[in-house]
Amino acid sequence: MANALLRWPVCALALFALLQSCHALADAGRDYQPFAGRSGEFETFASYERKAYYVPAADGVRLALTVYLPTDGPDVDRFPVLLWYLPGHRESINPETGEITSAYSAEDLAFFTAHGYALAAAEMRGSGASFGTRELDRGPQIGRDGKAIVDWIARQDWSDGSVGMVGLSYQGFSQYATAAEQPEALKAIFPEIAGFDDYTSMFYPGGIQLLALSQLASGAIVRDDLNHFDLSGRRPRLPSVPVIDEDGDGELADEIPVDKDGDGDFLDDGPPTYRDASSRMHIYYLATKYHLDNTNLTVESLAAAPHRDSRLAGTAYTYADLDPGDKPARIAEAGIATYHRGGWYDYHARDTVMWHATLDGHSPTRLLMAPTGHGGFPADGSASDYSAGPYFRHFGDRETTRADLNREKLRFFDYYLRGLDNGFDKEPPVLLYVMGEGWRAEAAWPLARRRETTWYFAAGQALAPEPGLEGVDEYAVDLDADARSEGAHRFNFMVSFAEAVLQLGSDSGRRLHYTSQPLAADMEVTGHPLVTLDLSSSAAAGDVFVYLEDVGPDGDALLVTEGQLRANYVEPRPIQEMSGFASPAIAPQLPWHGFDSTDYVREPFADGRVVTLTFDLLPTSWVFRAGHRLRVSVAGADQPVFALHPALAEEENPPVYRIHRGRGSKIMLPVIPRS
Asked: Given CA atoms 107, 490, 412, 153 in this order, what sign does their dihedral have?
């Protein structure tokens, strides 16, 4: 994930032809061509030089940082700086060859340094060549250290005192955490596919433990922390680059201790030795050894902390201490500009729009939502590589590329770091990829002109625009239901690798479906669909997974969006209670169920009780074509991506859900008028 970071774009000239057909919209209030503003006035430097440092944190812990400074250009020695602050490695090195690979791509290094920006990459404490131990993965120390790094950068003789931040996923989290500490020099951040409330997006969506992400991410973080070396596999694992050349020979690879037993881990080999047999103070070895004491969020530690107020991994912290806490309030107070980039098929899709909607009207904020998973844009119009996923290609978009997003970032930072009057502040603040139509500018999220349109579960497993007679549909829960599409799932990182768009396909028979008649006209759904179920069960507890699909005339069904809820969290709570602040108000005002231990009802379905569950599906922007049908599918499990409800795992026979029809069970769709 880390190596994929700064590589995703959206541009002025490259997209101009594609976007000439963008609509004049009521929300935008005027015609607007996205990405067509000015940029590039500072493209004057032909090369860059690399420097590495140890940066002291407030408590004296040394953090590894590399900076790339523009060279071969005008007589300028101070630059605005873009910081990437990450777990993992700011740079990697092959101990056998000495070859160094930056976490930044070659194209990003060339592009931003050519435009007069210094690029910095810093490793968190407990990571790479940094010293120290992380008291908790995503803990409060990350923000405090981020502030120390920004303050240090601002004091350097190569910095002009203005700092921006970049990065995605965890490195988006580190931007929000750092900005909340309000470092004076930090003017703007560009977080991508990052969390607002990680409990409900990546640890326990709907209160149900998400296994797939933790299984992948925690292991990768540990291996990077311990500087493992393994050239086998599709993606070789390399250690971080040492900061100090202790023997002064100009080589850095020989600062890495010899892996005597060849298992990729030099820490299990006793006292360190080096291939040149020179004596050392063991700076790199000692830094890495600290990382053995990191507290990481593993599948096991998360399983032991099922509620939002649970203590995490033996620490005093809960999920509520990680985010959002008071971060939105402190970022708004500081006036730091934010540009939030998300993906419609990312598990952080709701988080991305919530960041923008919450900060809107309180500090400068922009939103961009693209048809991606937990990744970025194509390298070029024909690429099908990691990060792009299948959706640009599916919708016939051969124009949008990574280079385009870099230009959007440049225009954002030119305005807020350099003060360039490039018109960026006069453009509509929301840019959406309407799936089926392309890019469109809007004035706000959610769209003010949406019409909340209700479709009711009806007899004969129909989905109808009017409520029908009361009735009950029984569904024998299939505990082996699996929503992966050829291995890909929104919640397992694999959308970015997928060759085809997501479909429930051959597994669809494991769910209960409600399907509409063919639509008479195109219908755009942009926003947050809301599901209400009047539900009872033969079991005392259970989980509900709901999917919205687009069924074509040929019966082929594409997954549009999805949501889930553990029925034990039956009662909603005010969403503002998610945070540690009263203002700004968390927006949009979506159903939220608290997910604290006190919110958990042990047996919500006991004694045949009918409960009403209301929850949102992840946001989307999708055009259902005339002749297509809407389909809502309901399941009680999604294995192996999600853990099975503990109560159901103990049952000999799968439960039978009873969905009560009439006015109660329904889906509300935010429909955008087609005028």
From this structure: negative
